[in-house]
User: What shape does this take?
Amino acid sequence: GQNIDQPTEMTATEGAIVQINCTYQTSGFNGLFWYQQHAGEAPTFLSYNVLDGLEEKGRFSSFLSRSKGYSYLLLKELQMKDSASYLCAVRSHNYGQNFVFGPGTRLSVLP
Amino acid sequence: DAGVTQSPTHLIKTRGQHVTLRCSPISGHKSVSWYQQVLGQGPQFIFQYYEKEERGRGNFPDRFSARQFPNYSSELNVNALLLGDSALYLCASSLRGNQETQYFGPGTRLLVL
Assistant: This one.
């Protein structure tokens, strides 16, 4: 089966750094994605890892360890607009290359 | 360039009715996937279509069906609606549905009373 875990909620302060963890158990692994979703809106693509290591993209970085079934999303220099849900998604051969999503982590950025 | 578009944006139905949701992919994208997102949860995969053929199916009952048209737009149909079908229905498009990123539309929010 497929199982993805993320913390339900996190709180951080504007200007700080926050790390959102994701652990997964899946067969047919073919990449891990992070999406941002503001309330009532569609998910928007943030980052993608298929090989182990760190991918950096401006204020956002994502890390993957396939042997540990573990990823994290790192957000630097937090801004109020970063308050949103962050979805970890694993792409699987078993779903025709579609995504299995985690429950999402609701991040609140406080002034 | 226009992104993924979906219609309608909101819909209210009663139990037992039927609903059709529509999606137009990004220009040049040939693959469309449908997801259901219940409030407070991550999206769940329903269907994927590529070149008008079903490529993948999630764990949803036969009341859910879909199709893709020659212009790559897609419809999701749900029959005999249940209260539990109330959710945000997301459409995502990608070039070929293999190794590429999926881009999501704004969704259709369905409420079943």
Observations:
- Chain A touches chain B through 23 residues (CB under 8 Å).
